[in-house]
Input
Amino acid sequence: MASHDLLVAPVPPHVPSEPRIFGRIFAIRRIESRLVDVVVFAALALLLYSLWRTGHAWTQPAISEARISMRPSALPGYALDSLLRIAIAYVFSLIFAIGYGYAAARSAAAERILIPLLDVLQSIPVLSFLPTVMLAMVALFPTRQIGLELGSILLIFTGQAWNIAFSMYASLRAIPTELKEAARVYRFSPWQRFIELELPYSAIGLIWNSMMSVAGGWFFLMACEMFELGNRDFRLPGLGSYLQRASGEGDTKAIVWGLAAMIGVIVLLDQLVWRPVIAWGDKFKMESVGAANVSRSAILRLLRRSDLLAAFHRRAVAPARERLMLSLARPEGESLAAATSADLPPARTLGRAARRTAAYAAGFAIAAWLAVHAYKLVVELGSAEMLQLLRGAAYTFIRVQGSLLLGALWTVPLGVAIGLSPRLARIAQPLVQIAASVPATALFPVILLALLRFGGGMGVAAIVLMLLGTQWYILFNVIAGAIAIPSDLREVAQVFRFGRWNRWRLLILPAIFPYLITGLLTASGGAWNASIIAEYFHFRGTTLETTGLGSIISGATDAGRMDVLLAATMLMAVVVVAMNRLVWRRLYRLGENRFKLDA
Output
C-alpha cells in the first residue's frame, strides 16, 4: 500500500462524505425557507382579505342594533372583527404615544401643558368619552356603518394610548447623559437622534406597554362594542358584544365559548407577534457586555430565513430607509454651533416665540369655551347631588388605593423574576398575557355570586374587579424594567456576592424604579377607569351598584344625564390630576435624579 494511502481514512459506504452532508443541510434549509415563504404569503393574503372584509362591512348601511348570535359557529368572525378593531386602535395609539411622549420630553414648555393634559385624559373613563365620540361619529357618517366602527375604535384608543405615552415620556427622560452628549458630538440631526438613540432606548418599555395596551383593549372591549346611550342601543358584532350579552343573560355556556375564543386569539397573538417582538427587542438593551440570557422565538428565527422577506427588505425597505436617512441627516459641513437652538437668528427666534404665543392663546380660548359650557351644565346641580358626588369620589379613591397596594404586593416580585429569567418568561409570558387580556367583566358574575354567597357584597367585588383590571399595568412595567437591567450590573452584584436584601436594595429596586412609577401611575388611571364597570353592573336584568364615582358616571350614562356625567367626570379628573401632581410627578423626578443610568 502506498504511503499516502495510509494518511486517508477510508469512507464507509453508509457514511456520506462531508460535501454531501452540507448539500443535504442546504437542501433542507431551502425547503424550510420555501415553506416559510408560503406561510408568509398566506398570512399576507389573510391580512388583505381581512381588510377587504372590514372595508366592505364599514361601507354598508348603518345598523345601530346588530343582532348578536350566541352560536359558537359565529365566534371566528366575531374574533376577527374585534381583533381588527383592537389592531387599528393600537396602531393609532402607538403613533400618538410616540409623538406625544417625544414632544413632552423634548420641550420644557410643551411638558408644562402636555403632561397635565395627559393626566386629565387618562383619568377620564371610557364611558365619559362614549356619548361625545359616538354621537360625533354617527353625525359624521349617518348612513354608513363606518360611523359606529370608528366610534368603537376611538373608544378602544382611549383605553390604550395613555400608558404607552407615559412610557415613551419616561424612557426619553431617563436616557443617560453620556449618550446624549455622544449624539451632540457626532452632530446627529433631530431625526438621527430619534432613530439612533431615543427610539431604541425606549423600545423595551414601548414593547411591554404595547402588550398591556392590547390587553387593555380586550378588557374594555365589552364596553366598546355594546352599550346604551339614553334610549338608543348600539351594538357591533364582536367578541365583546358576544360576552356582554352572554354575561347579561347569565349564559354560562356562552361565556365559556366566548372566553375560549378570546384566549385562543390571545395565545396566537403571543406566539406570532409578541414573542418574536420581545426576542427582537433584546438588541436594544443597554449593555456593556454580552447578555448571558436572551429571549428566543422560533417564529422570529423562521422569519429571518424567509427569502421573500429578505428580498423585500433588500430591495424596498433598506433603500427607502437609506434615502430617508440621507435626506433628513444634517449636511457634513454644518457646524455644531449652527445645530444648536441657542444660536438661531433673531427672526427665527421671534417666529418661534410668536407661534408659541399663538398656541398658548388658542389653548386658553378652547379651555375657556369648554369651561363656560361646562359651568352652564353643572351649575344646575343641587347641593344634595354635589354632596353625593364628593361622597362617591371618596369611596372610589379608597378602592383605587387599595387595589394599587394589593397589586404591587405580588406583581413586583413576580415581574422581577420574569424579567430576569428568560426561561421563566417563556412559560409565564403567555399566561400573563391571557390573564391580563381576559375581561374581568366576563368573570364578574361568577366573582360577584361567590362574594355575595360568602359575604362581602358589591364594595369588595368592586375592589376585586379593579385589581383584576389594573394590576397588569404594574406587572408589565416591572417586567420591562427588570429586562432592561444591564448584564454588567448583575454580574457586579454576583462578583461582590450581594445577599438577597442588598441585591434588591442596591440593584433591582433602583433599576426598576422609573418603570415601577410608570406602572403605578398608569394603573391608578386604569383603576379609576375600571370603577365605571366595577361599581355598576347589569346582571340578569337587574342593576347591581355600590357607592362610588364610577357608579354615578355609569348611572348618568344610562339615564342620559349629561350634567351629572360631566360633573362626575370633571371631579374624577381633578382628583387624579391632584394625585399625579402631588405624588406621582414627584416620584418621577426622584427617579430621574437618583436612579438614572449615568456614567
